[in-house]
Amino acid sequence: MGLEKKEKASIAWLLFPFFGLWFVFWLVPLFFGVDLALQNPGYIPEYRDAFEGSGEEYSGFQFNWMDSQKNEIEEKESVKYIGLENFSRVLADKKFYKALKNTSFYVFGSIVIILPLAFALSLSLFQLSRIPRGFLVFCLLIPGLALPSVLSTLFYLFFHGRTGALNQYFVVPMGFSPVNWMMDPLFIMPSLIMQAVWRWTGLVTLFFLCGLEAIPRWQWEVAKLEGVGIGMRVRKIFIPNLWHLALFAIVFLVVDGFASFSGAYNLLGGSGGIMDAGLLLVTYVYQVAFPGGSGRFDFPGAAAMSLLVVPITAFILFIVLQSRRRWSIR
Amino acid sequence: MKKFLSGIVLCGAVLICLYPFAWMFLSSFKTNREIYQPTLFIPSDFEPDSYLSLFSDQYISFLSYFLNSTIISGLQALLAVMVTAAAGFVFAKYSFRGKSLVFGIAILVILIPKQALAVPLFDWMLWLGLQGENWALILPGIASGLGIVFFTQVFRKVPDELLELAKVEGLSVHRTFLLILPLVGPALVTYGLLHFILSWQEHLLPLLLLDDENITLPIALAKLRDSSHRIPEAVGMAAATLSLLPVVVLFGICFRKMKTALVHLALS
Fold it and tell me: What are phi and psi of B210, to 5 degrees?
């Protein structure tokens, strides 16, 4: 369609609200972040004075972020920019790697469990007739509708501890000794992953179910006529038809996983749990920026940390989206 | 046999999904001692004390937090639908120079979620003087990359003939957009709901961007939990139930529309 001048103007007006907001609340903070990451943690700009003076508001847990370096920082308070020092400080921080490792494990673990589970559930649902199907999917969705902090509270009260339901109903009957879910460093990450699975499996099941319902009838008929085996059916019907939905789910889970904060924050009271076994990236960034108690606000360190994560998520998503080309050829 | 097996799997899954929430609801009537025995299901009596204490602001001003959450999430979802639908419509139906570049920029938003930008965003809001206001929370959430992808897909399914007809009739692009909107009603509802829920659940940004007196539900619930040695656990359970209820009702009402929209999207 060729465009007239008047059309161009109104197209610009339709795009403007999005890009205006995009500019002010995404691009500017991004540059703010880059700028912040280059600054001296000891330097406090005027507009932040009032806030830092008010102090105690964000306390709640004690935390010492690289005590040894504090003196060094205090010496050059008047210097504003210190180059890439913040980045090297973060890269030398063992806790950062721990958080990165935990988060990757969390994201990978939840995706590996959720996708096959959701696929199996959607296939089971697909065999039912319309009304119970809708009703059951809705039931599966409910954990996704609840606040993550509610899920954590429930997890804490209901599943947790020796007398918790998870132990009483599953672990003990299978002949194992009860697991102390939130206190044992080995089991903190599995409990976080369990929470993610509990939360998102319903939504992914809904996606897959809608994908199955959208598969044209003739494909099933042909498969039936030809007497195609299950392996062939998966390769020729399910994967081509559901792959883009699975991709969408993966992108969603990766983004949500790397950004997840609420569940772990509630479950572990803002700390990383015993031996930081449940320390996630966003929690750590938050700890560095708002140490609470006696610590000082280290915005530049936190900004550097967030920026270091960006290439990682971008790379993962790039890989995921690349695989789209391979599968979408029918 | 196959049906039987999948039936069992489904029943198990539904049970795992629903049982804890049923326990949560029933626990809002229990005493602390009863709650600390998680295998106990039915409370000894059904006194609605915990609900009354929430409604009378005995421990926290629950109703005002609830209202705050509703306003923030509702407004954000409404604005997000309008803004991203307009942009998605243009991306799906018009071509202009530099379009793929502009579209690429819009998609870029997905790569860096706003939680990753939380600290700079907080600093920026301090600089703007917006920190502590509801707008500080509403505005950053509107321009979402997911919305652009969703609505571009949605409007691609609208037949081109309609647009040509509108052009022949001499309608402006705006009028055409407004005329086409009702056709994609289910998609608008679907995205609005998803956005509403994601914003309803958001925890980190309100923690940073809102004042202490002016918080949203996730933070109010975390507060209740933190002080659970002073406040009976049943109050927290009641608050949790009340925070879940409106979302479930909304979803229940719109569920069929939502499924239609998603199936339609999945048809390629």
Answer: -105, 155
Cβ B66 vs Cβ B242: under 8 Å: yes
Instruction: Assess A102–B contact: CB distance below 8 Å, yes or no.
Output: no
Contact predicate B84/B143, CB 8 Å = yes
pLDDT number for residue B75:
93
Q: Which residue carries 């062939």 as its tokens?
A: A232
What percent of chain B is modeled with pLDDT above 70?
A: 97
Q: Does domain A94-328 have CATH number 3.10.290.10?
A: no
Q: Contacts of residue B109 in chain A, CB cutoff 8 Å?
A: 22, 26
Kindly state whether A210 is in contact with chain B, defined as any CB-CB distance less than 8 angstroms: yes
Q: Assign B47 to helix, strand or coil.
A: coil
Ramachandran bin of A269, using left for φ above 0, alpha for ψ from -120 to 50, beta for the remaining angles: left
Domains of chain B: 1-47 (no CATH), 50-266 (1.10.3720.10)
Looking at per-residue pLDDT, the higher value among A59 and A139 belongs to A139
Sorted by where each begins, the domain ranges of chain A are 94-328
Contact B1, A125 (CB under 8 A): no
Q: How many Å apart are CA A186 and CA A138, to the nearest integer?
A: 33
Question: Would you call A261 and B115 a contact, using CB atoms and an 8 Å cutoff?
Answer: yes
CA distance B104 to chain A (A): 12
Counting residues of chain B whose pLDDT is more than 90, the rounded percentage is 6
Provide the β-strand partners of residue A81. A39
Is the Cβ of B100 closer than 8 Å to some Cβ of chain A?
Answer: no
Which of B37, B147, B128 lies closest to B82 in space, CA to CA? B147
Q: What is the DSSP string of A145-192?
A: HS-HHHHHHHIIIII-STTSHIIIIIITTTTPPPP-TTTSHHHHHHHH
- Helices B233-266 and B62-93, axial angle in degrees (round to 10): 10
**A78: helix, strand or coil:** coil
Between CA B207 and CA B215 the distance in angstroms is 8
Residue corresponding to tokens 């309609």: B162
pLDDT tens, position by position, B67-113: 889 999 999 999 999 999 999 898 888 888 888 888 887 777 777 77
A297-328 pLDDT tens trace = 777 888 888 888 888 888 887 787 777 655 54
The pLDDT of residue A62 is 39
Please answer yes or no on whether B87 and A15 come within 8 Å at the CB atom: yes
Q: Which residues of B touch A125 (CB under 8 A)?
A: 10
